[in-house]
Amino acid sequence: MQKDTLVFDLIRKELERQRQGIELIASENFTSLQVMQAMGTVPTNKYAEGYPGKRYYGGCEVVDEIETLAIERLKKIFNCSWANVQPHSGASTNAAVFLAVMKPGEKFMGLDLSMGGHLTHGSPANFSGKTYHAIHYGVTKDGIVDYEQLEAKARAEKPKMIICGASAYSRDWDYKRIRAVADEVGAVVFADIAHPAGLIATGLLNDPFEHCHIVSSTTHKTLRGPRGGIIMLRHDFENPWGIKDPKGNLRMMSSLLDLAVFPGSQGGPLEHVIAAKAIAFGEILTEDFKTYGKQIISNAQAMAKTFVNRGYNLISGGTDSHLMLIDLRNKKLTGKKAQETLDKALITVNRNSVPFDDKSPFITSGIRVGVPAVTTRGMKEEHMETVVGMIDKVLMNPDDPDVISSVSGHVKEFMQQFPLYPELG
Ligand SMILES: *Cc1c(COP(=O)(O)O)cnc(C)c1O
Fold first, then answer.
1. According to the model, what pLDDT value does residue 247 have?
2. For residue 69, which of 3, 61, 178, 213 sits 20 to 30 Å off, Cα-Cα?
3. Tell me: domain 289-418, CATH 2.30.300.10, correct?
4. pTM of the predicted model, to two decimals?
Protein backbone atom coordinates (compact mmCIF):
# COMPACT_ATOMS: atom_id res chain seq x y z
CA MET A 1 0.00 0.00 0.00
CA GLN A 2 1.24 3.48 -0.81
CA LYS A 3 2.06 5.72 2.14
CA ASP A 4 -0.59 8.39 2.54
CA THR A 5 1.75 11.35 2.32
CA LEU A 6 -1.14 13.78 2.23
CA VAL A 7 -2.02 12.92 5.83
CA PHE A 8 1.53 12.34 7.07
CA ASP A 9 2.58 15.71 5.67
CA LEU A 10 -0.19 17.34 7.68
CA ILE A 11 0.92 15.48 10.81
CA ARG A 12 4.44 16.75 10.21
CA LYS A 13 3.08 20.27 9.80
CA GLU A 14 1.29 19.94 13.14
CA LEU A 15 4.56 18.82 14.78
CA GLU A 16 6.27 21.96 13.45
CA ARG A 17 3.36 24.10 14.72
CA GLN A 18 3.69 22.55 18.18
CA ARG A 19 7.46 23.01 18.13
CA GLN A 20 7.54 26.67 17.24
CA GLY A 21 4.72 28.08 19.36
CA ILE A 22 4.17 28.79 23.03
CA GLU A 23 1.43 26.44 24.19
CA LEU A 24 -0.55 27.94 27.04
CA ILE A 25 -3.86 26.11 26.68
CA ALA A 26 -4.35 24.88 30.25
CA SER A 27 -5.78 21.51 29.22
CA GLU A 28 -2.93 20.63 26.86
CA ASN A 29 0.40 18.93 27.41
CA PHE A 30 3.11 17.03 25.53
CA THR A 31 3.29 13.30 26.26
CA SER A 32 6.60 11.49 26.33
CA LEU A 33 7.72 9.91 23.08
CA GLN A 34 7.06 6.40 24.43
CA VAL A 35 3.48 7.30 25.41
CA MET A 36 2.90 8.56 21.88
CA GLN A 37 4.59 5.58 20.29
CA ALA A 38 2.46 3.11 22.26
CA MET A 39 -0.66 4.65 20.72
CA GLY A 40 0.50 3.65 17.27
CA THR A 41 0.79 -0.08 18.04
CA VAL A 42 -1.01 -3.37 17.39
CA PRO A 43 -3.45 -3.51 20.34
CA THR A 44 -5.48 -1.07 18.19
CA ASN A 45 -6.43 -4.17 16.18
CA LYS A 46 -7.91 -6.01 19.15
CA TYR A 47 -11.51 -6.29 20.30
CA ALA A 48 -11.63 -6.73 24.07
CA GLU A 49 -15.16 -5.91 25.26
CA GLY A 50 -15.39 -6.68 28.95
CA TYR A 51 -12.66 -6.53 31.60
CA PRO A 52 -9.41 -8.45 32.21
CA GLY A 53 -10.29 -12.10 32.83
CA LYS A 54 -13.94 -11.48 31.81
CA ARG A 55 -13.88 -10.70 28.09
CA TYR A 56 -16.41 -11.37 25.40
CA TYR A 57 -13.71 -12.17 22.83
CA GLY A 58 -10.90 -14.73 22.53
CA GLY A 59 -7.23 -13.85 22.29
CA CYS A 60 -7.35 -11.29 25.09
CA GLU A 61 -4.62 -12.78 27.31
CA VAL A 62 -2.03 -10.15 26.36
CA VAL A 63 -4.30 -7.11 26.43
CA ASP A 64 -5.49 -8.41 29.80
CA GLU A 65 -1.93 -8.02 31.05
CA ILE A 66 -1.68 -4.53 29.59
CA GLU A 67 -4.94 -3.36 31.12
CA THR A 68 -4.17 -4.96 34.50
CA LEU A 69 -0.81 -3.21 34.59
CA ALA A 70 -2.48 0.14 33.83
CA ILE A 71 -5.03 -0.44 36.61
CA GLU A 72 -2.41 -1.49 39.18
CA ARG A 73 -0.18 1.51 38.47
CA LEU A 74 -3.11 3.91 38.62
CA LYS A 75 -4.25 2.47 41.97
CA LYS A 76 -0.76 3.04 43.30
CA ILE A 77 -0.66 6.69 42.13
CA PHE A 78 -3.85 7.68 43.93
CA ASN A 79 -3.76 5.08 46.69
CA CYS A 80 -7.12 3.70 45.64
CA SER A 81 -8.68 0.24 45.72
CA TRP A 82 -10.46 0.20 42.35
CA ALA A 83 -9.98 1.87 38.97
CA ASN A 84 -11.42 1.70 35.46
CA VAL A 85 -9.05 2.77 32.67
CA GLN A 86 -11.37 2.22 29.70
CA PRO A 87 -13.15 5.58 29.26
CA HIS A 88 -12.25 7.09 25.89
CA SER A 89 -12.25 10.66 27.22
CA GLY A 90 -13.15 12.87 30.16
CA ALA A 91 -16.69 13.30 28.84
CA SER A 92 -17.04 9.49 28.65
CA THR A 93 -15.96 9.09 32.28
CA ASN A 94 -18.64 11.52 33.32
CA ALA A 95 -21.30 9.86 31.17
CA ALA A 96 -20.49 6.58 32.94
CA VAL A 97 -20.63 8.12 36.42
CA PHE A 98 -24.03 9.67 35.68
CA LEU A 99 -25.28 6.38 34.30
CA ALA A 100 -24.09 4.49 37.38
CA VAL A 101 -25.48 6.91 39.96
CA MET A 102 -28.50 8.70 38.51
CA LYS A 103 -31.79 7.91 36.85
CA PRO A 104 -32.95 10.27 34.08
CA GLY A 105 -34.65 13.32 35.54
CA GLU A 106 -32.96 13.10 38.94
CA LYS A 107 -31.26 16.16 40.42
CA PHE A 108 -27.58 16.88 40.71
CA MET A 109 -25.43 19.93 41.38
CA GLY A 110 -22.32 21.20 39.62
CA LEU A 111 -20.35 24.40 39.15
CA ASP A 112 -21.94 26.63 36.51
CA LEU A 113 -20.19 26.46 33.12
CA SER A 114 -20.03 30.27 32.99
CA MET A 115 -18.20 30.26 36.35
CA GLY A 116 -15.57 27.67 35.41
CA GLY A 117 -17.50 24.39 35.37
CA HIS A 118 -17.45 21.82 32.56
CA LEU A 119 -20.06 21.09 29.89
CA THR A 120 -20.61 17.66 31.42
CA HIS A 121 -21.54 19.25 34.76
CA GLY A 122 -25.03 20.12 33.55
CA SER A 123 -24.82 22.44 30.57
CA PRO A 124 -28.16 22.52 28.72
CA ALA A 125 -26.23 21.75 25.52
CA ASN A 126 -24.79 18.52 26.99
CA PHE A 127 -26.27 15.07 27.80
CA SER A 128 -25.80 15.89 31.49
CA GLY A 129 -28.13 18.87 31.32
CA LYS A 130 -30.55 17.27 28.88
CA THR A 131 -30.97 13.93 30.67
CA TYR A 132 -30.75 14.99 34.30
CA HIS A 133 -32.04 17.90 36.35
CA ALA A 134 -29.03 20.21 36.76
CA ILE A 135 -28.75 22.75 39.55
CA HIS A 136 -25.75 25.02 39.62
CA TYR A 137 -23.67 26.73 42.22
CA GLY A 138 -21.29 29.54 41.35
CA VAL A 139 -18.42 31.59 42.66
CA THR A 140 -18.47 34.71 44.82
CA LYS A 141 -17.52 38.19 43.60
CA ASP A 142 -13.96 37.27 44.67
CA GLY A 143 -13.94 34.33 42.28
CA ILE A 144 -13.90 31.61 44.97
CA VAL A 145 -16.45 28.76 44.96
CA ASP A 146 -19.50 30.03 46.85
CA TYR A 147 -19.65 27.25 49.43
CA GLU A 148 -22.47 28.97 51.31
CA GLN A 149 -24.58 29.02 48.18
CA LEU A 150 -23.63 25.42 47.46
CA GLU A 151 -24.74 24.39 50.95
CA ALA A 152 -27.99 26.37 50.80
CA LYS A 153 -28.91 24.95 47.39
CA ALA A 154 -27.99 21.41 48.45
CA ARG A 155 -30.24 21.69 51.53
CA ALA A 156 -33.10 23.16 49.51
CA GLU A 157 -32.89 20.88 46.48
CA LYS A 158 -31.56 17.62 47.99
CA PRO A 159 -29.63 16.52 44.87
CA LYS A 160 -28.68 12.88 44.40
CA MET A 161 -25.13 13.88 43.43
CA ILE A 162 -22.85 16.89 43.94
CA ILE A 163 -20.02 17.35 41.42
CA CYS A 164 -16.91 19.28 42.38
CA GLY A 165 -14.14 20.10 39.96
CA ALA A 166 -13.87 22.53 37.09
CA SER A 167 -12.17 23.50 33.84
CA ALA A 168 -11.48 27.16 34.43
CA TYR A 169 -11.01 27.57 38.16
CA SER A 170 -7.59 28.32 39.61
CA ARG A 171 -8.17 27.58 43.31
CA ASP A 172 -8.04 24.39 45.33
CA TRP A 173 -11.27 22.79 46.56
CA ASP A 174 -12.65 22.32 50.07
CA TYR A 175 -13.74 18.72 49.54
CA LYS A 176 -14.36 18.23 53.25
CA ARG A 177 -16.94 20.99 53.36
CA ILE A 178 -18.76 19.62 50.31
CA ARG A 179 -18.82 16.13 51.81
CA ALA A 180 -20.29 17.48 55.05
CA VAL A 181 -23.33 18.98 53.35
CA ALA A 182 -23.62 15.97 51.03
CA ASP A 183 -23.87 13.71 54.09
CA GLU A 184 -26.57 15.97 55.50
CA VAL A 185 -28.73 15.61 52.39
CA GLY A 186 -27.69 12.09 51.39
CA ALA A 187 -25.84 12.98 48.17
CA VAL A 188 -23.02 11.20 46.38
CA VAL A 189 -19.91 13.40 46.04
CA PHE A 190 -18.22 13.11 42.67
CA ALA A 191 -14.89 14.87 42.10
CA ASP A 192 -13.97 15.48 38.47
CA ILE A 193 -10.24 16.23 38.71
CA ALA A 194 -9.66 16.31 34.92
CA HIS A 195 -7.54 19.46 35.21
CA PRO A 196 -5.46 19.27 38.41
CA ALA A 197 -5.05 15.45 38.60
CA GLY A 198 -1.28 15.61 38.05
CA LEU A 199 -0.92 18.02 40.96
CA ILE A 200 -3.12 15.85 43.17
CA ALA A 201 -1.11 12.77 42.15
CA THR A 202 2.03 14.46 43.43
CA GLY A 203 0.43 15.61 46.68
CA LEU A 204 0.56 19.32 45.79
CA LEU A 205 -3.17 19.97 46.18
CA ASN A 206 -5.87 18.73 48.57
CA ASP A 207 -6.66 15.04 48.26
CA PRO A 208 -10.23 14.57 46.96
CA PHE A 209 -10.14 10.84 47.72
CA GLU A 210 -10.34 11.53 51.45
CA HIS A 211 -13.81 12.99 51.10
CA CYS A 212 -15.31 12.20 47.69
CA HIS A 213 -17.07 8.94 46.93
CA ILE A 214 -16.16 8.82 43.23
CA VAL A 215 -13.24 10.49 41.41
CA SER A 216 -12.77 10.79 37.65
CA SER A 217 -10.12 12.38 35.49
CA THR A 218 -8.85 12.81 32.00
CA THR A 219 -5.39 11.36 31.38
CA HIS A 220 -4.11 13.95 28.87
CA LYS A 221 -4.07 17.17 30.87
CA THR A 222 -1.72 17.52 33.87
CA LEU A 223 -1.35 13.71 34.02
CA ARG A 224 0.54 14.04 30.70
CA GLY A 225 -0.72 10.75 29.28
CA PRO A 226 -2.61 9.83 26.12
CA ARG A 227 -6.05 11.32 25.42
CA GLY A 228 -8.48 9.41 27.61
CA GLY A 229 -10.34 9.05 30.91
CA ILE A 230 -10.22 7.13 34.21
CA ILE A 231 -12.59 6.52 37.14
CA MET A 232 -11.38 5.64 40.64
CA LEU A 233 -12.59 4.72 44.13
CA ARG A 234 -10.33 4.84 47.15
CA HIS A 235 -12.71 2.67 49.14
CA ASP A 236 -15.26 0.59 47.30
CA PHE A 237 -18.64 0.62 48.98
CA GLU A 238 -21.95 -1.13 48.87
CA ASN A 239 -23.86 1.97 48.15
CA PRO A 240 -26.00 3.32 50.96
CA TRP A 241 -28.21 5.19 48.48
CA GLY A 242 -29.79 1.98 47.27
CA ILE A 243 -28.63 2.51 43.69
CA LYS A 244 -29.40 -0.58 41.62
CA ASP A 245 -28.00 -2.04 38.41
CA PRO A 246 -30.20 -2.27 35.29
CA LYS A 247 -31.55 -5.63 36.52
CA GLY A 248 -32.58 -4.15 39.86
CA ASN A 249 -29.80 -5.68 41.95
CA LEU A 250 -27.93 -3.80 44.67
CA ARG A 251 -24.24 -3.86 43.83
CA MET A 252 -20.91 -2.50 44.97
CA MET A 253 -20.17 0.95 43.48
CA SER A 254 -17.16 -0.45 41.57
CA SER A 255 -19.42 -2.93 39.85
CA LEU A 256 -22.03 -0.27 38.99
CA LEU A 257 -19.29 1.90 37.48
CA ASP A 258 -17.74 -0.96 35.50
CA LEU A 259 -21.19 -1.76 34.07
CA ALA A 260 -21.77 1.90 33.27
CA VAL A 261 -18.56 2.13 31.22
CA PHE A 262 -19.11 -1.21 29.46
CA PRO A 263 -21.74 -2.10 28.31
CA GLY A 264 -23.47 1.04 29.61
CA SER A 265 -21.86 3.70 27.50
CA GLN A 266 -18.96 2.22 25.53
CA GLY A 267 -18.19 -0.84 23.42
CA GLY A 268 -14.66 -2.13 22.87
CA PRO A 269 -11.85 -0.47 24.86
CA LEU A 270 -8.90 1.22 23.12
CA GLU A 271 -6.19 -1.17 24.33
CA HIS A 272 -3.42 0.70 22.48
CA VAL A 273 -4.41 3.83 24.39
CA ILE A 274 -4.63 1.81 27.61
CA ALA A 275 -1.04 0.64 26.91
CA ALA A 276 -0.05 4.31 26.60
CA LYS A 277 -1.93 5.08 29.84
CA ALA A 278 0.06 2.32 31.59
CA ILE A 279 3.30 3.95 30.40
CA ALA A 280 2.18 7.41 31.49
CA PHE A 281 1.17 6.04 34.92
CA GLY A 282 4.63 4.48 35.24
CA GLU A 283 6.12 7.91 34.49
CA ILE A 284 3.89 9.57 37.10
CA LEU A 285 5.24 7.18 39.76
CA THR A 286 8.80 8.49 39.25
CA GLU A 287 10.62 11.27 41.14
CA ASP A 288 10.89 13.18 37.85
CA PHE A 289 7.15 13.64 37.76
CA LYS A 290 7.14 15.01 41.34
CA THR A 291 9.73 17.54 40.22
CA TYR A 292 7.53 18.34 37.22
CA GLY A 293 4.49 18.95 39.45
CA LYS A 294 6.44 21.33 41.70
CA GLN A 295 7.76 23.19 38.68
CA ILE A 296 4.21 23.62 37.34
CA ILE A 297 3.19 25.30 40.60
CA SER A 298 6.31 27.52 40.68
CA ASN A 299 5.82 28.52 37.06
CA ALA A 300 2.14 29.30 37.55
CA GLN A 301 2.96 31.41 40.62
CA ALA A 302 5.67 33.29 38.73
CA MET A 303 3.40 33.85 35.75
CA ALA A 304 0.48 35.05 37.90
CA LYS A 305 2.71 37.50 39.74
CA THR A 306 4.06 38.92 36.48
CA PHE A 307 0.56 39.38 35.05
CA VAL A 308 -0.60 41.13 38.23
CA ASN A 309 2.46 43.41 38.20
CA ARG A 310 1.56 44.41 34.66
CA GLY A 311 -1.95 45.40 35.70
CA TYR A 312 -3.86 42.29 34.63
CA ASN A 313 -6.92 41.31 36.61
CA LEU A 314 -6.70 37.64 37.66
CA ILE A 315 -9.93 36.04 38.83
CA SER A 316 -9.56 35.33 42.56
CA GLY A 317 -6.31 37.33 42.44
CA GLY A 318 -4.06 34.40 41.64
CA THR A 319 -3.82 30.62 41.48
CA ASP A 320 -3.16 27.50 43.55
CA SER A 321 -2.74 25.29 40.52
CA HIS A 322 -1.50 25.19 36.92
CA LEU A 323 -3.82 27.78 35.40
CA MET A 324 -5.17 31.27 35.75
CA LEU A 325 -8.21 33.07 34.41
CA ILE A 326 -7.65 36.65 33.29
CA ASP A 327 -10.42 39.25 33.00
CA LEU A 328 -9.40 41.55 30.14
CA ARG A 329 -12.11 44.16 30.56
CA ASN A 330 -9.74 46.71 32.15
CA LYS A 331 -7.50 46.24 29.09
CA LYS A 332 -10.38 47.05 26.73
CA LEU A 333 -10.08 43.68 24.99
CA THR A 334 -12.42 40.72 24.52
CA GLY A 335 -11.29 37.15 25.00
CA LYS A 336 -11.94 36.44 21.32
CA LYS A 337 -9.78 39.32 20.13
CA ALA A 338 -7.00 38.38 22.57
CA GLN A 339 -7.02 34.72 21.51
CA GLU A 340 -7.00 35.56 17.81
CA THR A 341 -4.26 38.14 18.12
CA LEU A 342 -2.03 35.91 20.28
CA ASP A 343 -2.52 33.10 17.75
CA LYS A 344 -0.97 35.32 15.08
CA ALA A 345 2.05 35.74 17.35
CA LEU A 346 2.30 31.91 17.80
CA ILE A 347 1.09 32.04 21.41
CA THR A 348 -1.86 29.73 21.99
CA VAL A 349 -4.45 30.37 24.69
CA ASN A 350 -8.22 30.00 24.78
CA ARG A 351 -10.84 32.62 25.31
CA ASN A 352 -12.94 31.94 28.37
CA SER A 353 -15.96 33.41 30.08
CA VAL A 354 -15.13 35.01 33.39
CA PRO A 355 -17.57 34.89 36.34
CA PHE A 356 -20.42 37.37 35.82
CA ASP A 357 -19.34 37.92 32.21
CA ASP A 358 -21.44 40.38 30.22
CA LYS A 359 -20.31 38.94 26.89
CA SER A 360 -21.45 35.80 25.10
CA PRO A 361 -19.52 32.51 25.45
CA PHE A 362 -18.41 33.03 21.83
CA ILE A 363 -16.86 36.44 22.53
CA THR A 364 -16.07 36.34 26.30
CA SER A 365 -14.21 38.85 28.47
CA GLY A 366 -11.32 36.63 29.41
CA ILE A 367 -8.59 34.18 28.56
CA ARG A 368 -7.47 31.05 30.36
CA VAL A 369 -3.73 30.51 30.58
CA GLY A 370 -1.98 27.38 31.84
CA VAL A 371 1.61 26.23 32.22
CA PRO A 372 1.65 22.38 32.08
CA ALA A 373 2.74 22.25 28.42
CA VAL A 374 5.47 24.91 28.63
CA THR A 375 6.71 23.31 31.85
CA THR A 376 7.05 20.00 30.00
CA ARG A 377 9.09 21.85 27.40
CA GLY A 378 11.51 22.85 30.13
CA MET A 379 10.52 26.39 31.04
CA LYS A 380 11.33 27.69 34.51
CA GLU A 381 10.22 30.71 36.55
CA GLU A 382 12.47 33.18 34.71
CA HIS A 383 10.97 32.19 31.35
CA MET A 384 7.50 33.07 32.63
CA GLU A 385 8.50 36.73 32.70
CA THR A 386 9.63 36.56 29.07
CA VAL A 387 6.39 34.84 28.05
CA VAL A 388 4.16 37.33 29.89
CA GLY A 389 6.22 40.18 28.39
CA MET A 390 5.46 38.87 24.90
CA ILE A 391 1.76 38.38 25.66
CA ASP A 392 1.52 41.89 27.07
CA LYS A 393 3.23 43.39 24.04
CA VAL A 394 0.73 41.72 21.70
CA LEU A 395 -2.32 42.55 23.80
CA MET A 396 -1.30 46.20 24.14
CA ASN A 397 -0.88 46.47 20.35
CA PRO A 398 -3.53 44.12 18.96
CA ASP A 399 -3.92 46.01 15.69
CA ASP A 400 -0.27 46.60 14.93
CA PRO A 401 0.99 44.00 12.41
CA ASP A 402 4.62 45.05 12.97
CA VAL A 403 4.46 44.31 16.68
CA ILE A 404 2.75 40.98 16.03
CA SER A 405 5.30 39.87 13.48
CA SER A 406 8.19 40.97 15.69
CA VAL A 407 6.77 38.96 18.62
CA SER A 408 6.13 35.88 16.48
CA GLY A 409 9.75 36.05 15.32
CA HIS A 410 10.87 36.28 18.92
CA VAL A 411 8.65 33.32 19.88
CA LYS A 412 10.18 31.11 17.17
CA GLU A 413 13.68 31.98 18.26
CA PHE A 414 12.89 31.66 21.98
CA MET A 415 11.31 28.21 21.57
CA GLN A 416 14.45 26.77 19.98
CA GLN A 417 15.89 26.45 23.49
CA PHE A 418 13.09 23.99 24.35
CA PRO A 419 13.32 21.10 21.89
CA LEU A 420 10.19 19.01 21.35
CA TYR A 421 10.55 15.37 20.24
CA PRO A 422 14.09 15.85 18.85
CA GLU A 423 14.09 12.08 18.11
CA LEU A 424 11.55 12.72 15.37
CA GLY A 425 14.08 14.73 13.41
C1 LIG B 1 -11.44 18.43 30.11
C2 LIG B 1 -12.52 18.14 31.08
C3 LIG B 1 -13.44 17.10 30.85
C4 LIG B 1 -13.60 16.40 29.52
O5 LIG B 1 -12.55 15.81 28.96
P6 LIG B 1 -12.58 15.41 27.40
O7 LIG B 1 -11.50 14.42 27.32
O8 LIG B 1 -12.36 16.68 26.65
O9 LIG B 1 -13.92 14.82 27.12
C10 LIG B 1 -14.34 16.78 31.85
N11 LIG B 1 -14.35 17.47 33.00
C12 LIG B 1 -13.53 18.51 33.23
C13 LIG B 1 -13.62 19.22 34.53
C14 LIG B 1 -12.60 18.88 32.27
O15 LIG B 1 -11.80 19.92 32.50
1. 87
2. 213
3. no
4. 0.97
